[in-house]
Specification:
Layout (H helix, E strand, L loop, with lengths): L16 H11 L2 H18 L6 H25 L1 H4 L9 H4 L4 H22 L2 H22 L6 H5 L1 H15 L4 H24 L1 H6 L5 H4 L2 H25 L4 H23 L3 H29 L2
Helix pairs in contact: 1-3, 2-3, 2-9, 2-15, 3-6, 3-7, 3-9, 6-7, 7-9, 9-10, 10-13, 10-15, 13-14, 14-15
Length: 305
């Protein structure tokens, strides 16, 4: 069986079912989903007075993955015009035509419906509502409004990527408190230096697509200064979180070491605003977030009965 791309039957190139399946999976941006999940599980460990059940963790991850995947797919549907202009994104399935916009939209909305039902029926309504709100914010506020209109697009829009910690916390407690809000703040502050570092590498792409990502609009000195300021704020908040969440020596040590590394990376980029240096910071930022949250989970694990 072959699948067209929304062109006329005579002009549509053939695609196999396996290519369609791979295209649908690509729409969900699996690597981004993986990073979101890395923050969710440790949050659940911190939220629980004892180890959360494997069933609860699994269902929360399932619902969160479906919601994030659907949001990413809707983002690609709306952005397919600018994706076609950018070197980094021109091979995405909606650009190559492996998946049609209609198919992608139905797929994405199905994922969102499944996510809401999984979380509502098996976890709790608060988690389901939070997951759905993240999608609405990511698609409506970031993708459809801020991305093409403001240099603060990734700053404000990045809040959507921080919601999974709230979902994880509420899955365990069915409520929110100061600690998960501070954990939310960590990811919120982490997003600008993480993404702007990548945008430095692809600033010509964003210029070509007329997307006002900060590195394509202002000078590199201003960009690297903003990255450094956000990094300092992030590291400060990571240390403030320790006494509030009653973390022990394990988390505190990791937060200090990783934080020093992040600041040094940001300083290096400020001194040498090159694409090579920016990609080093980008890679380090992923390691930073993953290890910081793993250390939270490990710290909580040590204290659990």
């Amino acid at each position: 069986m072959h699948w067209g791309i929304g062109l006329s039957r005579s002009s549509a190139p053939p695609f196999s079912l396996s290519e369609l399946v791979r295209g649908l999976v690509a729409l969900t941006k699996p690597r981004i989903v993986e990073l979101l999940l890395i923050t969710t599980v440790p949050t659940m460990f911190v939220a629980s007075s004892r180890l959360p059940s494997a069933r609860l963790v699994g269902l929360t991850l399932l619902g969160g993955s479906l919601a994030a995947g659907g949001a990413n797919a809707l983002n690609m549907v709306y952005d397919r015009d600018i994706d076609a202009k950018m070197e980094r994104t021109k091979r995405r399935p909606l650009v190559t035509g492996v998946v049609t916009p209609t198919t992608a939209t139905v797929f994405a909305l199905s994922l969102e419906l499944a996510a809401f039902l999984v979380l509502w029926l098996t976890v709790n309504l608060l988690s389901a509502a939070l997951a759905l709100s993240a999608t609405a914010f990511y698609v409506g506020v970031y993708t459809m409004w801020l991305k093409r209109s403001s240099t603060q697009n990734i700053v404000i829009g990045g809040a959507a990527g921080a919601v999974p910690v709230l979902v994880g916390w509420s899955a365990v407690t069915d409520r929110l408190s100061l600690v998960p809000l501070l954990m939310f703040g960590l990811i919120f502050l982490w997003t600008p230096p993480h993404f702007w570092a990548l945008a430095v590498r692809y600033r010509d792409d964003y210029t070509r697509a007329e997307v006002p990502m900060l590195p394509s609009v202002v000078g590199m000195r201003s960009v690297t200064r903003q990255i450094l300021l956000y990094t300092l704020a992030l590291v400060t908040l990571s240390l403030v979180l320790a006494p509030v969440a009653h973390f022990g020596l394990l988390y505190r040590s990791v937060a200090v070491v990783l934080g020093i590394g992040f600041v040094l990376q940001a300083l290096a980029l400020w001194r040498d605003p090159s694409s090579r240096r920016a990609m080093k910071l980008f890679g380090y930022s992923i390691i930073y977030l993953a290890l910081l949250f793993v250390s939270m989970g490990a710290d909580a694990l040590v204290r659990h009965p």
